[in-house]
Sequence to fold (605 residues):
Amino acid sequence: MNLAGLSASYLRARPLQTALGVLLLALGVGTIVGALLVVSQLESRLGRDARGIDLVVGAKGSPMQLILSGIYQLDAPTGNIPLASAQALAKNPLVKKAMPLALGDAWRGFRIVGAGREYLEHYAAELAAGRRYEKSMETVLGAEVARRTGARVGSRFVGAHGVGGEGEEHSNAPYTVVGVLAPTDSVLDRLVLTPIESVWDVHHHEEKGHEEAGEDQEVTVLLVQYASPLAAATLPRAINSKSELQAASPAFEMARLFHIVGAGIEALRAFAAVLILAAGLSVFIALYTELQERRYDLAVMRTLGASPARLFGLLFFEGLLLALLGALGGVLLGHVVAAGLGAWLAAAQQPAVSGLAFRLEEVWIVLGALAVGGVAALLPAWEAYCTDVSRTLAQG
Amino acid sequence: MIAVRGLVYRYGATEALRLPEWQVAQGERWLVLGPSGCGKTTLLHVLAGLVRPAEGEVEVAGESLHRLEGARVDRWRGATVGIVLQALHLVAHLSVRANLRLAQYLAHLPQDDAAFDAALGALDVADKAARRPAELSQGEQQRVALARAVVNRPKLLLADEPTASLDDAAAARAIELLLGEAERNRATLVVATHDARVKRHFPRTLALA
Fold:
């Protein structure tokens, strides 16, 4: 027998109250940990995808939509822009790097993205198998696409119209897989990559027959990296003043998005804080109301040689132990929530969230929960310390 | 073993106990007699170091109790004194074995299975070790409480009204057990009671008024 064992025996002796305290604390801690894991992973993932991209240029529409579709391949594109405009912009001395993308089709829910090789290099993509595409209708698959579809080098498939792949199939224009990328932990993992010409070929084929591709060639977005910080001041304004183009800044739009989402996260955190306080209150009430019943136990322990400080320690440790159970349960719950959300997002071909990633903040959350348990146990423990053993025993 | 000189204990403004002189030798069996409220229980608590008298000197087992400060008196009590309470106050949610182990743990003594097997065996309740107190009869609970009081082999065994709620046969049995355990552990025994039935077992009595 030791202090922990003795404290635990009292927790076991009142299973319902103990379970209530642990549950409340676990729910509160779990909510905070879950929100922390999901938000931090999404933030870092979104930050990685947008690294090195200062501006997204596309058709007029919602700037947020342009960012989501152009960088993250999440939303529907705003429309197409003429290739000529994109090429003119790429030659601007304020532009260091310009990567045109052509969207429009999908295969089994994964977007087919027409892009130059510089797009793969931007995300430092390495080949796990095969080679890079060289000509039209050759594709390189992102790691996630290959894993989920089972496609390998040499596989052939046809794309379906629409970025969700909901439209008719382009059955007369099959793609051939020539390479598979190693995981990049970026948006590329979820993409089917092909030369821009493939996208043009597939669509021109159907819409206009075998007409020569000319000035009416289009791209969907242009991802731009500035040559100098000076560009931020002039380039977006210059682009937006042209009637057919729109420029959106990922940094600005993402800050706006997180500002909106942040309010929801704050509300969730406040709710979790209320849960944790309720847990502290339940610990306090359980220990305090039980003091009456326990005063003989406490007095007997004194006759058996326990000092007042030991009785204090016994009750204080009970509060801590309960808080520890709740906090660890909460951390587990938070990770399960993150894993569940991750599985759900993965099924919808969205950026992945893992339940197995740990963050340093979790240690602080656990310590905070322990502090709540300790503070809740302080007054009952003090009362135990003050037990008048002679008088208690004289009463019966 | 026990030397009391000029002891006065006050509860608030009232004088709850006055004992000018009392000497007890090692191994003696004493009965402290007197009506309710005469300070019998208080005397036991003073001897156990649970309360401090207002005046006087108390020496128990070679220790001057007023010199023991803070937690040292608790440690001394755990190792030196065994107490049997009128209401037995076994810890309800702990098994019989755990109740005895608790006594060893709180006294900072090694937790020694052989010691409490011996204590339970001597009192004929070794087969109840895994039970909870509520599953035992009153007589069995009394034996377990006695076993808990002697498991650390105290030099001084104190019993407060051990026969108060018992019929004649059970009272005689309880006293027999106390005497037997005091003998077996070579402990000095002091029993506080207002029960005149137990008088014949004790050659020495201290009458409080």
Remarks:
- The radius of gyration of chain A is 31 Å.
- Residues 235 and 256 of chain A are 20 Å apart (CA to CA).
